[in-house]
UniProtKB/TrEMBL annotation:
Domain Glycosyl transferase CAP10 stretches: 339-444
GO MF, one example: transferase activity
Homology family: Belongs to the glycosyltransferase 90 family.
Signal peptide residues on this chain, from the entry's feature table: 1-17
Taxonomic source organism: Mycena venus
Protein name: CAP10 domain-containing protein
InterPro entries given in the database record: CAP10, O-Glucosyltr/Glycosyltrsf_90
Alphabetical UniProt keywords: Signal, Transferase
Entry-linked PANTHER family: KDEL LYS-ASP-GLU-LEU CONTAINING - RELATED (PTHR12203), PROTEIN O-GLUCOSYLTRANSFERASE 1 (PTHR12203:SF35)
């Protein structure tokens, strides 16, 4: 089964928001009553129910499970984490993504106990000269200390986020990237990777800034992304603006412990964390009074009843009535390369299928338009009006489409909360990927 963004590329996913018990306002889904047991929808629903049911209900179980999963005792204050998670109705045991992201570092520590600290020291020394779009966050006596000087869009909100749990953290310093894109282009699954990780290839890390990025990625192991997991290999790199011409670069090819918002595996080895945009308090997050607040029957749909009935069986039909508005973000424009960027291709698709999809690019990203970019031509070619609309207007529609911009799409969780049915195309992994289930939250398809 293809998982979003892990191995398969451009998995188109249909997400059905699930917030506790099924609500009468929820989108129609296949009923599990009377459905055959080999129905993947039923199997997915049961697997989600089982996931919640099997969470540890006391701290002893939780600690035992942690040790069993990782082969080491839980970190200090695990009892406090346990209570924190219970209070917030979070999962207790299922955090495989973060275990996976840290695993190479634990393995390296067995070879060289000072590895982690030495890498940190190299990066910190560099950042005294040039922050490279990263911050070194210090936790001391339960308090959060940011470096001096505003360095990125998140510099002033990260302390608010971290201070909600910093009291439970030991003293530490960590590196966190302010770029939407991943930074650590190191495939730890490649042959000889451990040896390579222990040596340093670059004199100055985080300075690999190829322009454009397509050939550079093609030559790196783990960075040729298969279009489909089945059948013969064909690379899907040309379908992603990030791979064609990444909006931000400053990659390193050595292994450094960096917290990032998204990555593509196995090309990158960043440690994932949730982006600020997803928090309700963010200016950027779409505001929903409460999950599924607009009744399904009151949402707009251009779909006729007969095609709606086909949603679960015929993927092609579900493009009917999809609506999308967004900015031209994607990658650095270089000649005509933008025509291959996801969002521009979506406009092309909509032009050919105006009866199916309503798509418009509403604003132009000047910062992605350098010397080899002709803004006027692009604005004309794609009819970019400059007139956006409130993010929340999207929630009035039954069917929504979400595609990558410069990296992941930050509107995604808002779309899920809205109770609309979301179709998602992405190459990126985010911190929540393990929790999304095919046929419960999405229907996986390669595009
Ligand atoms: C778009 O990508 C294809 C390969 O998938 C390439 O042949 C073509 O030249 C690209 N177009 C532009 C305008 O870069
Ligand atoms: C261009 O956009 C405007 C407003 O956004 C719209 O009214 C017009 O129909 C569009 N033209 C084309 C050719 O798509």
């Amino acid at each position: 089964m293809a998982l979003v963004g892990t191995l398969s590329f451009f998995v188109v996913v249909a997400i059905i928001a699930r917030h506790g018990p099924r609500h009468p306002n929820s989108p129609p889904t296949t009923s599990s009553i009377g459905a055959p047991l080999d129905d993947p929808v039923v199997a997915a629903r049961l697997s989600v129910d089982a996931l919640f049911a099997r969470q540890s209900s006391n701290i002893d179980h939780a600690m035992a499970r942690y040790s069993l999963k990782t082969g080491r005792p839980p970190p200090r204050n695990y009892d406090k984490w346990f209570s924190f998670a219970r209070e917030k109705s979070c999962l207790i045991d299922d955090y495989d993504q973060v275990h996976r992201d840290f695993k190479p570092f634990y393995q390296l520590a067995e070879e060289d106990p000072s590895f982690f600290q030495r890498r940190l020291d190299v990066a910190l020394a560099l950042m005294k000269e040039n922050r490279k779009g990263m911050d070194n966050v210090v936790i001391k006596d339960g308090m959060v200390f940011m470096p001096e000087g505003h360095s990125n869009d998140y510099w002033d909100t990260w302390p608010i986020t971290f201070s909600q749990f910093s009291a439970h953290l030991p003293d530490m310093t960590f590196l966190i990237s302010g770029h939407d894109q991943p930074r650590v282009a190191f495939d730890y699954r490649a042959p000889g990777a451990m040896h390579k990780a222990l040596a340093l290839e670059e004199e100055i890390p985080f300075s690999a800034s190829p322009h454009p990025t397509s050939d550079w990625f093609r030559e790196r192991t783990g960075c040729n992304i298969p279009r489909s997991l089945e059948g013969f290999f064909s690379s899907a790199n040309d379908d992603s603006a990030f791979f064609i011409s990444s909006a931000k670069t400053e990659f390193t090819v050595d292994l450094y412990p960096v917290l990032s918002m998204s990555k593509v595996s196995p090309c990158f080895a960043d440690i994932l964390f949730p982006i600020e945009y997803y928090y309700e308090r963010s200016w950027w997050s779409g505001k929903v009074a409460y999950p599924n607040n607009i009744e399904w029957k009151d949402k707009k749909s251009q779909i006729c009843k007969s095609s709606l009935n086909s949603v679960n069986s015929d993927f092609v039909l579900i493009f009917f009535g999809l609506d999308w508005r967004g900015s031209s973000t994607g990658g650095q424009v270089f000649g005509f390369n933008y025509r291959n960027f996801t969002r521009f291709k979506l406009v092309e698709f909509a032009r050919e299928h105006a009866d199916l999809v309503d798509v418009a690019i509403t604003s132009f990203s000047d910062e992605l338009c350098g010397s080899e970019c002709d803004k006027e031509t692009i604005m004309r070619e794609y009819n970019i009006s400059g007139h956006g609309r409130p993010r929340e207007d999207e929630y009035l529609y039954k069917y929504l489409l979400d595609v990558d911009g410069n990296a992941f799409s930050g509107r995604y969780l808002g779309l899920l909360r809205s109770g609309s049915l979301v179709f998602k195309a992405t190459v990126f992994e985010e911190y929540f990927n393990d929790w999304l289930r095919p046929f419960e939250h999405y229907i996986p398809r390669t595009a």
